Amino acid sequence: MAQDQPKDRPIKLGIIGCGAFAQLMHLRIIADLPEFELVVLCDSSAEVVDALAERYNVAGRYTSVDEALDHPGLDAVLIANRDHYEVVAAALDKGKHVLVEKPLCLDPAEGRDLIERADAAGVVAMVGYMKRYDWGFQELTRRLPELGEPRLVRVHDFKSQFHIPWALYDLVRRTDVPAAEKEAEMARMRASMTSAVGEDGNIDLYRIILFFASHDLNVMRGMFGEPLSIDAVRANGNDTIVAMLDYGHRGPSLLELSAATDFGWFEEEITVAGATEMLSLRFPHPYVHYGQSELTLHSHDGVATRQERVLAPYSDGFRRTWEHFAHYIYHGGQPITSFRDGLADLELAVELTRRSAS
Ligand SMILES: NC(=O)c1ccc[n+]([C@@H]2O[C@H](COP(=O)([O-])OP(=O)(O)OC[C@H]3O[C@@H](n4cnc5c(N)ncnc54)[C@H](O)[C@@H]3O)[C@@H](O)[C@H]2O)c1
């Protein structure tokens, strides 16, 4: 069982998986937060670990997950490799608080196992769905009741060129990981995804939903809970899917997800239409620090149409995710993006993939 975290000292944190995303977002944010002391960096690439440990002045440098987890005094870990299951299981079994990047893992069966381990360990177990902690998204959910019963909901997410903001950052690339190790990781991931959607399932579409669009399934749940039914699904190839979900509202909720686009800007938006007013929220690019989400209330006062535009404060969803993680570690409580929440996304992703084939 996890010990109570003393509130008078920073949480000793390790990062397992120090690739692009850990470097772009997490490392920089952690360095700004007094709640955390970064004591461990672990990656399959010694080159990456050494370069980042020098940059961020971290003493604990590991290429072995087990050794990293045994680092003296380690309280919590961020898991930001791609194939999370085994690493999350090991961290939970050693009683560490876990923040794992989305998706929780690749197969609902793995997710159920991780929930059991997290419950047994009694630690904070949270999925890093940062959009749920975004100020603008929380303001949207706070204002939803003012709209009355939704007439129509639309969440759309069209892929942009994610590498564009990389020019802002000096990333350390791995060149020392043997090809066989990378192939073994891909084979494991493929096996997990096959277990989830079946031998004949569209694994490429499932992978796109998990890695690109699981945020969208998750924000739908953040607004309305579980769908009562999936009324229609249409996929084009492996990269585009449109689904119509029923949350018991007067009208349907549409998910429009496409990785077939290659925009030079970031394009992800939620629209909720009431009878006379409409709320829309645009998310900022996830690779740019302190980006502001933008909430717009469209209304009509009988004479003129009005748009109230609210820009979220600079404390973006990532920083707020870390602040919530610290809060749960210090004070207890169940994260809104719990492992059960992450599992529900996996189950919905499996169902959407299956239904897209029929
Ligand atoms: N929240 C978001 O918007 C968002 C955006 C992009 C990526 N992500 C998530 O971040 C995670 C990482 O993505 P990425 O693009 O940085 O991947 P990446 O391939 O650039 O980095 C992964 C790193 O993990 C290391 N690694 C692999 N297996 C390991 C192991 N067993 N032990 C230690 N290190 C290991 C690799 O060497 C690599 O450096 C994924 O889960 C992805 O879904 C989230």
Strand portion, in percent?
Answer: 15-25%
Extract low-pLDDT stretches: none
Under the CATH scheme, the architecture of the largest domain is: 2-Layer Sandwich
Q: Please count the helical segments.
A: 11
- Average pLDDT figure: 95
Q: Could you say which small molecules are bound to this protein?
A: nicotinamide-adenine-dinucleotide
In sequence order, what are the helices and strands, one letter per element? EHEHEHEHEHEHEHHHEEEEEEEHH
CATH class call of the largest domain: Alpha Beta
State the CATH superfamily name of the largest domain. Answer: Dihydrodipicolinate Reductase, domain 2
Structure summary, number of beta strands: 14
Rg from Cα:
21 Å
Largest sheet: 8 strands, mixed
Strands of the largest sheet, in order across it?
8-9-10-7-11-12-13-14
Describe this structure in words.
The protein is α/β, with parallel strands linked by helices. It has two domains: 11-129 and 320-336, Rossmann fold (3-Layer(aba) Sandwich); 132-315 and 345-356, Dihydrodipicolinate Reductase, domain 2, CATH 3.30.360.10. It has helices spanning 20-32, 46-56, 65-69, 85-93, 108-121, 135-143, 179-197, 203-211, 214-224, 317-331, 339-356; strands at 11-16, 36-42, 60-62, 76-79, 97-100, 125-127, 152-160, 229-236, 240-246, 253-263, 267-273, 278-282, 294-300, 305-311. Strands 8-9-10-7-11-12-13-14 form an eight-stranded mixed β-sheet, with helices on one face. It has a six-stranded parallel β-sheet with strand order 3-2-1-4-5-6, sandwiched between helices. β2, α2 and β3 (60-62) form a beta-alpha-beta unit. The structure holds nicotinamide-adenine-dinucleotide.
